[in-house]
Amino acid sequence: MSEDDVALRESVPDSLAGERVDRVVSFITGASRSVVAQSIRDGEILCNDLIVRKGSQKVASGDVIVVRSSLLDLPLGIEPDSTINVPIIHEDHDFIVVDKPSGLVVHPAPSQRQGTLVNGLLSLYPEIASVGDNQRPGIVHRLDKGTSGLLVVALSPEGYLGLIQQLQERAIKRVYTALILGALESDKGVIEAPLGRDPKNPTRRAVVADGKEARTRYKILERYADPEECCLARCELETGRTHQIRAHFSAIGHPIVGDSHYGGSSISFDLERPFLHSSLMAFEHPITRESLSFSSQVPKELSTILDKVQ
Prior knowledge:
This protein is 18% helix and 28% strand. With 310 residues, it is α+β, with helices and mostly antiparallel strands. The protein folds into three domains: 3-67, RNA-binding S4 domain (Structural Genomics Hypothetical 15.5 Kd Protein In mrcA-pckA Intergenic Region, Chain A, Roll); 88-169, 2-Layer Sandwich (Pseudouridine synthase); 175-277, Pseudouridine synthase. A hairpin with a 3-residue loop joins strand 5 (88-91) and strand 6. Helix 1 packs across helix 2.
């Protein structure tokens, strides 16, 4: 489980040895038993790296409980942090566009309440505390911790509603640049496969029969053979599911370079993050309806990789 996917990690103390796992999770998180039961059904609780299937499972002293659950309430009172660097490439009254660096978590979670983009945003724009979800104020959509690039953030309630509506209507164009392992047969295509939680690993997404509709359109920009076969691709989201591009390319046997979580590790490339960058966004201004477009070049740690392939 990657650190940005873990909401809570605790060792079972001696005093709780022999108790049911659902009671232990309820005790250490403060969540209700019904919330814990739903988390278990969703595969979001692990004991010693194994998914908990039954709340009645007994725990022993020293067992490691890991919880990743959107159902656990985030404590209120997110603190502003002026030390967080927020690279802003556009600003007006209703929204900003941020060029997020890799490694920066977008919003707080129970496992990390500080050091996120939202903490930095609250320092710059205190007014966003009342914009949108109070657990992730101003956030319209997110990027994974390891993914860099463009992200739009609402500054006003009107801006938030207008952007959310466009997102729901799939009217926000989102294009990513990715370096993909292997040689894809077609120069362009669409990966259309439903995504849901991986039944073997709740921190991953996988193609599952009862998953949510997901479509990724891609076009190969360059092909390389050395030091390893790989393709530079332009990927456009037609839907916006969690880990969509990462999971889709992994599912067809061509994971993203550097994406160890989805099988993209490679000794040929010295990269500790996925080669995935949000490079273009286009949408209507949420108030004026002006057509807007923003672009971002891949950061140095990625362009350095491209300088070495041929």
